[in-house]
Automatic annotation (TrEMBL):
<feature type="transmembrane region" description="Helical">
    <location>
        <begin position="133"/>
        <end position="154"/>
    </location>
</feature>
<dbReference type="InterPro" id="IPR037294">
    <property type="entry name" value="ABC_BtuC-like"/>
</dbReference>
<feature type="transmembrane region" description="Helical">
    <location>
        <begin position="315"/>
        <end position="335"/>
    </location>
</feature>
<dbReference type="GO" id="GO:0033214">
    <property type="term" value="P:siderophore-iron import into cell"/>
</dbReference>
<keyword id="KW-1133">Transmembrane helix</keyword>
<feature type="transmembrane region" description="Helical">
    <location>
        <begin position="101"/>
        <end position="121"/>
    </location>
</feature>
<keyword id="KW-1003">Cell membrane</keyword>
<keyword id="KW-0813">Transport</keyword>
<dbReference type="InterPro" id="IPR000522">
    <property type="entry name" value="ABC_transptr_permease_BtuC"/>
</dbReference>
<keyword id="KW-0472">Membrane</keyword>
<feature type="transmembrane region" description="Helical">
    <location>
        <begin position="56"/>
        <end position="81"/>
    </location>
</feature>
<keyword id="KW-0812">Transmembrane</keyword>
<dbReference type="GO" id="GO:0005886">
    <property type="term" value="C:plasma membrane"/>
</dbReference>
<feature type="transmembrane region" description="Helical">
    <location>
        <begin position="187"/>
        <end position="211"/>
    </location>
</feature>
<feature type="transmembrane region" description="Helical">
    <location>
        <begin position="347"/>
        <end position="364"/>
    </location>
</feature>
<dbReference type="Pfam" id="PF01032">
    <property type="entry name" value="FecCD"/>
</dbReference>
<feature type="transmembrane region" description="Helical">
    <location>
        <begin position="231"/>
        <end position="251"/>
    </location>
</feature>
Length: 371
């Protein structure tokens, strides 16, 4: 008995036919493949997002080369790469590998962590001002870290104390809004109040200890990358790696959470669970970054704003935000090291000088929509 094409099972042909018949939306690349089960799978990649991330990545690499080149001992950019691999003059190798490279790594990691936490918090609260620094998480982490430094009856390491302080500040902020959610200016005002209280507690602790102890804790109050502890930097690197993966997992639900809760629920998003997950991720990233550099809060505002102004509004710019945050942190610390050399300006002061006018510009500028 002969069999025609119509008699053959069509399940093996349908996925491939479907994967080939669906065109990518405008502005996207579409990658399609067939799973082992015969199902059609596809991945949409936004062209503008890739271009923005690539541009920020190139800018970050150039800033890193500049960072390793400039300082009290200037090096030619052509001598930086050999020095990274231990070749060239010994003084150049020592300057790059021992003095500048560890600080550069800390700048990149902390800037990326602050910015990623910032864009997550802003999207969660649907407010461009809702960064960890503005809603008090930075100050909470700083207060607990300073308490461990000045010996206020605690013996935990600053990273662990910073995490506890960030979690405490977040819990207080959410408790004060009393079920009002994370949207609106009530949440912002509550966070500012919590941050002010923790800031006052930090100053009170510093006022009650010896001047040498207060000087040791001073970098934690303004933000500095000078002589950062290596274990805290390593912990931040691990935490940031896990945080980036977690951020990508919640990226699609997070994009839908920019709409009203009822709309997100209708699209299949468990808003309460996702909100808790995003909040905890922001708290952990902020705490780990504060444990390394102190409260450099404005990076969480500037980095996401740069990424958002360059990217489209269709997706949350996670990659662009962390690259922009790392770029801002590297340039700010470079400026602090070189502008008034041999006097060094802490990176937190530089970002505050930049971030203050930037914050005013955000408040005065109407939010525009992207294509």
């Amino acid at each position: 008995m002969k069999s025609s094409a119509s008699d053959l099972p069509t399940s093996a042909f349908v996925p491939e036919r479907r994967s080939q018949s669906i065109a990518a939306p405008p502005g996207y690349w579409r990658i399609a493949w067939i799973s082992p089960r015969g199902n059609a799978c596809s991945l949409l990649i936004e062209r503008r997002g890739v271009a923005v991330s690539a541009g920020l990545g190139v800018a970050l690499v150039c800033a890193c080369v500049l960072y390793l080149s400039l300082g009290s001992m200037a090096l030619a950019p052509s001598a930086v790469l050999p020095a990274l691999f231990g070749r060239g003059e010994m003084i150049s190798v020592f300057t790059v590998q021992e003095l500048r490279l560890p600080r550069l790594v800390a700048a990149c990691l902390t800037g990326a962590a602050f910015a990623l936490a910032g864009v997550l918090m802003q999207t969660l609260a649907r407010n461009r001002l809702a960064t960890p620094g503005i809603i008090g998480i930075d100050n909470g982490a700083t207060a607990f870290a300073v308490a461990s430094v000045v010996g206020m009856g605690v013996s935990l390491a600053p990273p662990a104390m910073a995490l506890a302080g960030a979690a405490t500040a977040a819990a207080l902020t959410f408790g004060l809004v009393a079920g009002g959610g994370t949207q609106g200016y009530r949440f912002i005002v509550a966070g500012i109040g919590v941050g002010a209280v923790f800031g006052a507690v930090t100053q009170l602790m510093l006022a009650r200890v010896a001047i040498d102890t207060a000087n040791a804790a001073y970098p934690w109050t303004v933000g500095s990358l000078n002589a950062r502890p290596g274990d805290a930097v390593g912990l931040l690197a691990v935490g940031l790696g896990v945080g980036v993966i977690a951020a990508f997992i919640v990226a699609r639900p997070l994009s839908l959470m920019r709409f009203k809760d009822a709309t997100a629920y209708g699209l299949g998003v468990n808003v309460k669970a996702r909100r808790f997950q995003v909040l905890m991720l922001s708290v952990v990233l902020t705490a780990l970054a504060v444990a390394v550099a102190g409260p450099v809060g404005m990076v969480g505002l500037i980095g996401p704003e740069i990424a958002r102004s360059l990217s489209s509004s269709r997706q949350v710019p996670l990659v662009a935000s962390l690259l922009a945050g790392a770029l801002v942190m590297v340039l700010a610390d470079l400026a602090g090291r070189t502008l008034l050399a041999p006097i060094e300006i802490p990176v937190g002061i530089v970002t505050a000088v930049i971030g203050g006018p930037w914050l005013l510009w955000i408040l005065m500028r109407p939010q525009r929509s992207h294509a």
